[in-house]
Amino acid sequence: MATTATTANKSVFSFWWAPLLEGLAAIGFGAALFLQPAITLAVLTTFLGAYWLVDGLFKVVAAFSGQSQEHSWWIMLLSGLLGIFAGIIVFGAPLMSTLITQVFLVYMLAVQAIIGGLLSIVWAIRAHKEIRGEGWAIAGGILAILLGVVLMSSPLLSVLVLARVTAILAIAGGVALVVAAFQLRNYRD
Fold first, then answer.
1. Rounded Cα gap, residues 134 and 129, in angstroms
2. Helix pair angle (155-188, 37-65), 10° resolution
3. What does each C-alpha distance from 2 to 8, 9, 15, 131 come to in angstroms?
4. Residues 5, 6, 8: CA angle, nearest 5 degrees
5. With contact defined as beta carbons under 8 Å apart, do 83 and 55 qualify?
6. Do 150 and 133 touch, CB atoms closer than 8 A?
7. 32-45 pLDDT, tens per residue?
8. What's the mean pLDDT in 57-70?
């Protein structure tokens, strides 16, 4: 049993370069997103459009070739056609698609924050006899609601701010992965 664990550990340490590459990619992505957020978001949206298009084509083929269950072939077909349609729209108007996609995501985050905040407040009020510190849950709920309102009040500015925050997190995560990779490499010896 110990031999198997040792073999598994050696295998993990021999691939120390995988987190290194992932970390460097995250740093590159974060730098691009921080320095050129609009271009980076447009490229990401274009990749998303390509994914939708290819995925849609495969789903249509699967629907007609019997790869899906007989009673749900039409769901596969509809999903595929929607993916193809979305991909064509992204390629037809990449900048507009980027703007619409990012603003949609901001609104989704805002709605999630507001609903989550309300649920947190309701939960804290209902559970106040069973828990301690319910005031913190209520304060967190209020802050979440305020975040949602701020995101909704200025969606375009929110897109830029969220892009910057994501860039900083990607760079920090990338640096952590690079450090971890070198620690794995040194531990292997």
1. 9
2. 80
3. 10, 10, 20, 44
4. 65
5. yes
6. no
7. 999 999 899 999 99
8. 80
